[in-house]
Write a structure and sequence with these properties.
This protein has about 450 residues and is an alpha/beta fold. The strands form three sheets. The chain has a six-stranded parallel β-sheet with strand order 3-2-1-4-5-6, with helices on both faces. The mean pLDDT is about 95.
Length: about 450
Amino acid sequence: MKLTILGGGGFRVPLVYGALLGDHAEGRISRVTLYDTDADRLTAVARVLAEQARGVHDAPAVVATDDLDEALRGPDFVFSAIRVGGLEGRAADERVALDEGVLGQETVGAGGIAYGLRTVPVAVALARRIARLAPHAWVINFTNPAGLVTEAMSRHLGDRVIGICDSPVALGRRIARVLGADPDRARIDYVGLNHLGWVRGLHVDGRDELPRLLADPVLLGSFEEGRLFGPDWLRSLGSVPNEYLHYYYFNREAVRAYQDAEQTRGAFLRDQQEGFYARVKDPTVPALATWDRTRAEREATYMAENRDVAGAGEREESDLDSGGYEQVALALMRAVARNERTSLILDVRNRGTLAVLDEDAVIEVPCLVDANGARPVAVEPLPYHAVGLVTAVKAVERAVLEAAETGSRSAAVRAFALHPLVDSVSVARRLVDGYTKVHPGLAYLSRP
């Protein structure tokens, strides 16, 4: 089996390769092709992977290339993990938004819309290329905003593109551990869009254990989301939200914290990763150990401003042990390649699962996965508070897709103006002006 990673010089690629090293079953991935347009990053990541593979007799072979056609020659799976504009682009997305007094997070609010406008045209071009050169490959999308990008690619790849995110599985595993349940035996009732979902039940041996958690303020306050949102709010909702909903439920506090921060998250990661890639250019520097230290700092500082707002303190070791998106990807590949039926929370086309959205809207829900791909399972209807957010954000995503397809500036303005975290059409217009100034790639927004 062959795997191609688009964005193969990305910082998190060693997580995927590490998961592959632990898979020794028949039909495993035997060759990994890394594709990237940045030769220095490719070289650095290839060094980390080589050190990971030392002593593993059947480690997948690694090939690095900057030739996209070569990378798409015969893969069984294609991972899309691109970052259009790099972390410099993310830092600019955040700063333009914060200067207008609105959220600049990578996937939520104005920053997420800007990132989508930059990324969708590139992702669509890749989808068309894959459809032509590797029509039988399964595409697993890591690229953020994951739900939006998966929907854009699905218009050309159909159900052969599946989006993944580690947030839902990490949340479910944390809840299971708090309840004393085996995370691998728990069935999670989760529903929403990418970075906009809620755990509404956690079933162990046919019994929903979530009410027990919601009734116990001590248990509720003992894990990351409980500390982030507060036990009273979780009990009021009757569910446990994905951590990204903190940006919605505590928006004013989050914006203020991000404005007061010494630097944005994107700027922090930019500086951190530039340091990593620069250090490992030196062949005497141990690449894997340097990567491990950098990754640990990255994880420990994740959503630090939100935790400060909530008084949640530093992340605990148990909160960091999420299972990771690489484990979701490995489980997905195993299920498809070996017809090992399993259940995973994935980003797939709606297919009637949520009545408030159309058939082709990509949603994030539990799916049954086998050799035929991923199929969403039936879920209970969304409560009204969730319907409002889900439909509003899906309308924003559709406006982004329209803008990317047509080059319409008015569609881009509509995307910003309709988002629940942007409170003014005038602000939306200034955001479009600001982003087109700092991102030459948005010059395509030239039509009225």
